[in-house]
Amino acid sequence: MVEILSQEEIEALLASLAGSEEAQPAAGSPSVAPQAGSTGKAERRVPIAYEVYDFRRPDKFSKDQLRTMQMLHETFARLFSSTLSAYLRAPVHVDLISVEQIPYDEYIRAITSSLINIFSMQPLSGQALLEIEFDVIISMIDRLLGGPGTVVKRPQPALTDIERPLVENIVERALGALRTAWEGIVSFTPIHEGMETSAQFVQIVPPNDIVVSILFELRVGETHGAMSLCIPYLLLKPVLSKLSAQRWFSGSKRTSSQHTAVIAQQIQHTRVPLIALLGSTRLMLRQVLDLKEGDVIVLNRRTSEPIDIVVGNRVKFRARPGLRGKQVVVQIESIVANKPAAQAKPAPSSV
C-alpha cells in the first residue's frame, strides 16, 4: 500500500528542507566540516541562473532601441498635437502611453472600432499602420464641418465620400509629423496607401512577426480615445544600428540649423498686418454721432512729427506721411527696437 503522509510529517519534511538550504555555505565562504552521523561527503549546490524566454514573443529590439523610439515618438506626439490644434482650431493633446514589441496578431486582435491607415516609409521596404479610434475621428470631422465636435454613434464604422478626404488630410498631417520626428535617425517619405475600418482585412506581415506597438492617448476637446502606430521589425531592420540615443541626439543637433533655415524661408511668405498710426484722440459719444463730412478731428500728434508704423502689435518703424501722385504713402525714416505699441495718450478733442 502507498503510505500517505500526515500533515505533521509534511510540515516536518518542509522544515528539514528549508534548514538544509540555509546550511549551504555561500560562495567564497570557508567550508564547514560535516557533522557527526553524516556521510562525510561534502555536497555543493551551484545556483543555476536562468531567464524566462517566450519563444512566441522573441525580443528583436534592445532596451536602448526601444528607449530611442520612445523619445522619437514623444517628439512626434508634440508635433502632431500642435499641427492638429491649428488645423481643427481646437485644443488637441497627444500623449505617449507605451512602446512595446509584440506579435502582429496580438496587435490586430486588440483593435476593435478604429480607422486603420496603411502607409509606407520609402525608401524602407514594407508597410506600417496608423490606427485611430473611430469616435475621435467622428469628433474631428464634426469640428471640420463647423460643429462642436459631437460624437454620433454609427451602426457601422464607415466614412462617406465627403468625410474621407477630410480624414486623409488629418492622416497626412500625422505622417508629416512622423517624418519630422524621425529625421535625426533616417530620412523617409511616408505615403498613405490605404484606409480600412476592419482589422481582419489588414495583413502587412505574417501573424507571428514582431512589431513595435506605440500607443498614444488622443484628446480633442472633450473627446478622448486611443491612437497607435504599428511598425514591423522587418521594416526597421536596415536602420536598427542607428536606433541609439546617442545617434538621435547628434542627429537632432545636426538638423537644427536646417530646420531654422526652412522655418525662416516659410516665415517670409507669412502675411502680417501693418498699420501707419497717424495719431489718436478721444471723443464723447455725442460728438461722434454729430460728425459729418468736412469736420476736423484734432489728434495728439503734430503734422511735423514722425508717425508710428505698427507691425502686428509692435512699433517697428518711424515714418513721414506724404503723397505719391494720388496715393497716400509713408516714407520710413528709422527703425525702432522691438517693443509693444504704446497706448496713445488721449488729446483734447475738438470738432
- The strands making up the biggest β-sheet line up spatially as 1-5-6-3-2-4
Mind telling me which CATH architecture of the largest domain this is?
3-Layer(aba) Sandwich
The helix/strand order is HHEHEEHHEEEHHEHEEE
- Overall geometry: elongated
Provide a count of the helices: 8
Largest β sheet strand count, sense and barrel closure: 6 strands, antiparallel
What is the helical fraction, as a range of percent?
A: 25-40%
* Percentage of β-strand residues: 15-25%
Write down the domain tally.
2
Please state the CA-atom Rg, rounded to the nearest Å.
35 Å
Q: What is the β-strand count?
A: 10
Superfamily (CATH H level) name of the largest domain: CheC-like
CATH class value of the largest domain = Alpha Beta
Under CATH, the topology of the largest domain can be stated as Chemotaxis protein chec
The overall pLDDT, averaged over residues, is: 81
Task: Describe how the helices and strands are arranged.
Elements: H1 7-22, H2 63-88, E1 92-103, H3 104-109, E2 114-122, E3 127-133, H4 134-144, H5 163-181, E4 189-196, E5 210-220, E6 223-232, H6 233-236, H7 245-267, E7 274-277, H8 285-290, E8 307-311, E9 314-324, E10 327-335
Antiparallel strand pairs: 1-5, 2-3, 2-4, 3-6, 5-6, 7-8, 8-9, 9-10
Give the structure's gist in a few sentences:
The strands form two sheets. The protein has a six-stranded antiparallel β-sheet. Strands 7-8-9-10 form a four-stranded antiparallel β-sheet, with no helix packed on it.
Structural account:
With 351 residues, the protein is an alpha+beta fold. The protein has two domains: 63-267, CheC-like (Chemotaxis protein chec), CATH 3.40.1550; 274-335, SpoA-like (Surface presentation of antigens (SPOA), Roll). Helix content is 32%, strand content 25%. The protein has eight helices and ten strands. It has helices at residues 7-22, 63-88, 104-109, 134-144, 163-181, 233-236, 245-267, 285-290, and strands at residues 92-103, 114-122, 127-133, 189-196, 210-220, 223-232, 274-277, 307-311, 314-324, 327-335. Strand 5 and strand 6 form a beta hairpin.
